[in-house]
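F.,

This is the one I mentioned.
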C-alpha cells in the first residue's frame, strides 16, 4: 500500500489496516478447532445413531412387507404365525443396528479430526444400507425357499425405490437430531 508522504502515522495506520484484513481473511478461511470428544458426547451420538438406524430398519421392513403383500406402499408388520412377531422385528432391527454401530462410531471419531461433514454423512448412509440389508424382515415371511443371493437381490437391490428415500431421510433426520442435541 502506498501512503502519502509527510503525514505522520499514515504508514502505521496503513500497516495496521493491512494486518487486520489478513487476520480477518485467515479467520474466515480456517475452520474452528474441533472440541475434543467426551465419552458422554460420543455415547449420546451413538444413541442417536442407534435410534435412527433401528427406526429406519423397522420402517423398511414394514413398508417392504406392505409393498410385497398388497403391491402398494403402506405399513404392514411382517409376521409368521408362531415364529416372527412384532417383538422379533424390533429385536432384529436393534441387533442389525448394533452390528454396524461400532464401525460408525469409529469412522465418526476418525473423520472428526478433519471435520468433513460430507464424509460423516456418507459413512452414515453406508451404515444405513448395511442395516437395511442385515435387518428385518426375515425372508421366511415371504416363503421358505430363499437363497442368500435371492434375499440380497429381491429384498434389497430391487427395492431401491423404497431404500433410496428412506436412506436419505435417515441421514437428514440424524443431522437434525444431532444439531438439536448440540452434537455434530
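My design for it:
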Amino acid at each position: 500500500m502506498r501512503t502519502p508522504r509527510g503525514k505522520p502515522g499514515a504508514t502505521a495506520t496503513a500497516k495496521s489496516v493491512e494486518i487486520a484484513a489478513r487476520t480477518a481473511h485467515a479467520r474466515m478461511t480456517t475452520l474452528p478447532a474441533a472440541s475434543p470428544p467426551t465419552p458422554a458426547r460420543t455415547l449420546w451420538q451413538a444413541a442417536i445413531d442407534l435410534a435412527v438406524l433401528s427406526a429406519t430398519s423397522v420402517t423398511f421392513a414394514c413398508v417392504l412387507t406392505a409393498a410385497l403383500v398388497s403391491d402398494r406402499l403402506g405399513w404392514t408388520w411382517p409376521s409368521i404365525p408362531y415364529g416372527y412377531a412384532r417383538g422379533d422385528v424390533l429385536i432384529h432391527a436393534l441387533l442389525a443396528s448394533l452390528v454396524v454401530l461400532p464401525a460408525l462410531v469409529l469412522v465418526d471419531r476418525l473423520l472428526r479430526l478433519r471435520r468433513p461433514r460430507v464424509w460423516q454423512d456418507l459413512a452414515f448412509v453406508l451404515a444405513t444400507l448395511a442395516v437395511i440389508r442385515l435387518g428385518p424382515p426375515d425372508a421366511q415371511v415371504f416363503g421358505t425357499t430363499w437363497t442368500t443371493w435371492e434375499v440380497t437381490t429381491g429384498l434389497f437391490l430391487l427395492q431401491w425405490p423404497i431404500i433410496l428415500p428412506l436412506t436419505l431421510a435417515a441421514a437428514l433426520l440424524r443431522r437434525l437430531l444431532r444439531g438439536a442435541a448440540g452434537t455434530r
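Helices lie at 10-29, 39-70, 86-112, 117-134, 148-155, 160-181.

Talk soon.
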